[in-house]
Design goal:
The chain is of the alpha+beta class. About 25% of the residues lie in helices and about 25% in strands. Strand 17 and strand 18 form a beta hairpin. Helix 2 runs parallel beside helix 4 and helix 14 packs parallel to helix 18. The strands form 7 sheets. The protein has a 7-stranded mixed sheet with strand order 12-13-10-20-17-18-19. The longest helix is centred in the N-terminal third of the chain and has 23 residues. The N and C termini lie far apart (about 70 Å). It has 3 domains: about 200 residues, Aldehyde Oxidoreductase, domain 4 (2-Layer Sandwich), CATH 3.30.365; about 160 residues, Aldehyde oxidase/xanthine dehydrogenase, molybdopterin binding domain (Aldehyde Oxidoreductase, domain 4, 2-Layer Sandwich), CATH 3.30.365.10; about 325 residues, Aldehyde oxidase/xanthine dehydrogenase, molybdopterin binding domain (Aldehyde Oxidoreductase, domain 4, 2-Layer Sandwich), CATH 3.30.365. The radius of gyration is 28 Å and the shape is globular. It comes from Puia dinghuensis. It holds the Pfam family MoCoBD_2. This is Oxidoreductase. GO terms for molecular function: oxidoreductase activity. InterPro entries: Ald_Oxase/Xan_DH_a/b, AldOxase/xan_DH_MoCoBD1, AldOxase/xan_DH_MoCoBD2, AldOxase/xan_DH_Mopterin-bd_sf, N-heterocyclic_Hydroxylase, OxRdtase_Mopterin-bd_su_IorB, TAT_signal.
């Protein structure tokens, strides 16, 4: 007798989660869609049954099981929970009882699907609430018609419609076929905030069980029939071209099928490499180690970090491109009682996601199918359609879980490379980047240098404020962009009321030119702007002889900011700070949210600096899940601590020096201070959450160190043990 085949945990979960015919409800476009919905992938890799599509977003099978599509990627920030949490609130279903499904790339159905700019909630919360409310009203109308009663006498509760006078009830599964024939309401009635049962509550994350029991499918886990594996040898100087290669030894490895030159698009450059394709990943990696490539590295500069930052410092002497100006800075600065000047420097950084880049592509003559950890499935769909001449509706981009993204996995190069390889070998392929590939190829967060000048009045108010920033302009990386255009993010991170209190100000930038590719990194320019601006604000407070928080209060004449400062003082115990600790504060604004952070430091017995505690106050306005907000702010603080005190990317002879975590050091758990996160309750519009918690940490930490040691830190990263 043959032994019985055992199913893996993932296979078991996948098989048992799929049952029943589903009908789809929802709304993005104002009219109805017709026809069958495409097969869509759930979080553990299976395919839900074909559905009769009313529009999009919500499907209900005849047993009453509700599935909700999430149009944004889940890379640790909580979208997998908060998107269905908003829809389920208005739909009146229990979040514990629903399926959650990743939507494939389709901007016409789902709007923007790019997970970036902390936009998932702030960009679509009203729309997502209306989707749930529309579906609820359609189900209510279907029930009322079935009973032949007044719709006003019916209400939704826990996946059922109940007739209030009689207590009779239909489940959503009983009603969905009839509801699918109805037109969605144009203006569904939304709940008052006081009526919420799910939104605003610290509900458990829906992805946590999947990630702890092995059911979650990340890009690197995904497998499809007939799939081959590829790794690519790329130029260590990034822009290098393949002059020639010798694959004689590579082809001696069992399982190696192909060795081919490939290209991928990085902004306006075609980056070249040599792909080794094999039956399994190990064979491909072994084959790559034996590959010999001769690179043509001519035609571009081979810069070192020293040359890059020397160039930025030289650029500061040039006339800047003005972003925002008001009044007459020079005149006010010359008349000021006290003048303060400082220069700050922030480094290049890698994204260093725990899951390196990877992507599966299956390119046929008339279609492309993609699976992977992708932040912008709609962007990838459009990009591949244009580059490879395949109709948009024949390009399917499926999202998996992402092991971190931070902006890197919104880029289009790695799906393009996978598609090019698949087309060349006429087979589905998974392209896997090693940690070293991921770390050294970029694009990177750009380094930046800031020259700050300000003048104070006799009373200690800012009369003149000026900054010039020298950094690579990310926008200039894109083809067709005017290389002389100013950086439209020069003031990102600076609190908006400062523009009213600084009557004479000027913000300028110099676009430093370099072949090093740069792009978004968590909180984008605010990650470096925040360090420079809030460190300088602190220097001005001390120059004015004023308490740093009160100095900020004086210049942030806005009720929302005043309330945040009041709460920050209370939560941190700011007015009772002791003599043997250093206390620092920073307040930044980006992605429509305001975050204040207070950092406490002290000396250890050996005299080295210890970070004791971080108190963070997040004002993101209307919010969905306070626990996820706290998690995101905690993660932002840890990431910011690493960037401030642990790691940066250096370049030597045009090549990235740091290749793995042995040299690009991450903070260890014993180095993480106590972190206390609070969320402001107010009636403001929803702001971002995933990124705004990062920019205040570095300046607040440096300001705390100054408070303790009287030493200003103006260059990142720095070694805490050497302060």
């Amino acid at each position: 007798m043959q032994p019985r085949a055992l199913k893996s945990r993932r296979q078991f979960i996948r098989d048992t989660s799929l049952s029943g015919l589903a009908l789809v409800l929802g709304a993005y476009l104002p009219g109805c869609n017709t026809g069958s919905a495409p097969n869509i992938i759930n979080a553990s890799g299976g395919t839900l049954p074909t559905s009769i599509e009313l529009m999009t977003w919500i499907s209900i099978d005849r047993s009453g099981k509700v599935s909700i599509l999430t149009h944004r990627a889940e890379m640790g920030q909580g979208a997998y929970t908060v998107v269905p949490q908003m829809i389920a609130e208005e739909l009146e279903v229990d979040l514990k009882a629903i399926n959650i499904v990743f939507a494939p790339g389709n901007q016409k159905k789902y709007g923007s699907q790019v997970t970036g700019g902390s936009s998932t909630v702030r960009g679509s919360y009203k729309h997502l609430l209306r989707i749930g409310a529309s579906a609820r009203e359609m189900l209510t109308e279907a029930a009322a018609k079935k009973w032949n009663v007044n719709q006003a006498d019916c209400y939704a509760e826990n996946g059922s419609i109940i007739h209030k006078p009689t207590g009779k009830a239909f489940t959503y599964g009983d009603l969905v076929a009839d509801a699918a024939k109805l037109q969605p309401p144009k203006e569904p009635k939304l709940k008052a905030r006081s009526e919420y049962r799910l939104v605003g509550k610290p509900l458990p994350r829906k992805d946590t069980p999947l990630k702890t029991n092995g059911a979650a499918i990340f890009g690197i886990d995904k497998k499809i029939p007939g799939m081959l594996y590829a790794v690519v040898e790329r130029s260590p100087r990034i822009r290098g071209k393949v002059k020639s290669f010798d694959d004689t030894q590579t082809k001696t490895i069992p399982g190696v099928r192909h060795v081919i030159t490939v290209q991928r698009t990085v902004f306006d450059h075609l980056q070249e490499g040599v792909a080794v394709v094999a039956d399994n990943l190990w064979a491909a990696m072994q084959g790559r180690q034996l590959l010999k490539v001769d690179w043509d590295d001519s035609g571009f500069e081979h810069l070192s970090s020293e040359q890059l930052f020397a160039r930025m410092h030289e650029d500061l002497k040039k006339s800047g491109l003005n972003d925002r100006t008001s009044g007459d800075f020079e005149r006010a600065f010359q008349k000021a009682t006290t003048k303060v000047e400082a220069v700050y420097e922030a480094p290049y950084e890698a994204h260093a996601c725990m899951e390196p880049l990877n992507c599966i592509a299956d390119v046929k003559d008339d279609s492309i199918t993609i699976w992977g950890p992708i932040q912008g499935p709609d962007w990838v769909q459009s990009d591949l359609s244009q580059r490879m001449g395949v109709p948009l509706d024949k390009v399917t981009v499926n999202m998996t879980f992402l092991g971190g993204g931070f902006g890197r996995k919104a880029f289009l190069d790695y799906p393009h490379e996978a598609a090019v390889i698949s087309k060349a070998i006429k087979a589905p392929v998974q392209v896997v980047w090693t940690r070293e590939d991921d770390m050294t190829q970029g694009p990177f967060r750009p380094g930046a240098v800031y020259a700050c000048k300000a003048g104070l009045s006799k009373e200690g108010r800012v009369e003149a404020f000026h900054t010039t920033t020298a950094t690579q302009n990310m926008n200039h990386e894109n083809p067709g962009v005017d290389p002389h255009s100013f950086n439209d993010s020069t003031t990102e991170g600076l609190c908006k009321p400062y523009f009213d209190s600084f009557t004479n100000y000027s913000f300028a930038d110099i676009p430093t030119v370099s072949p090093i590719p740069v792009m978004w990194w968590r909180s984008v320019y605010a990650s470096t702007n925040g360090f420079a601006y809030e460190s300088f604000i602190d220097e001005l407070a001390h120059a004015a002889g004023k308490d740093p928080l009160e100095f900020r209060r004086q210049h942030l004449d806005d009720d929302r900011y005043q309330a945040l400062i009041d709460q920050l003082i209370t939560l941190s115990g700011w007015k009772d700070r002791g003599k043997n600790q250093g206390w620092g504060v920073a307040i930044t604004e980006c992605f429509s949210s305001i975050v204040g952070e207070v950092v406490k430091v002290s000396r250890k017995p050996d005299g080295k600096i210890k970070v004791d505690k971080v108190i963070a106050l997040m004002d993101c306005g209307w919010y969905v899940n306070p626990d996820i907000i706290r998690q995101q702010v905690e993660g932002s603080i840890v990431m910011a601590l690493g960037a401030a005190t642990k790691h940066d990317i250096h370049f030597k002879d045009g090549m990235a020096v740091e290749k793995n975590f042995d040299t690009y050091s991450m903070p260890r758990i014993h180095e993480i201070p106590e972190i206390e996160v609070h969320v402001v309750d107010n009636d403001e519009r929803a702001g971002g959450v995933g990124e705004p918690g990062l920019p205040p940490l570095a300046p607040a930490l440096c300001n705390a160190i100054f408070d303790l040691t009287n030493k200003r830190i103006r260059r990142l990263p720095f070694n805490l043990d050497e302060v």
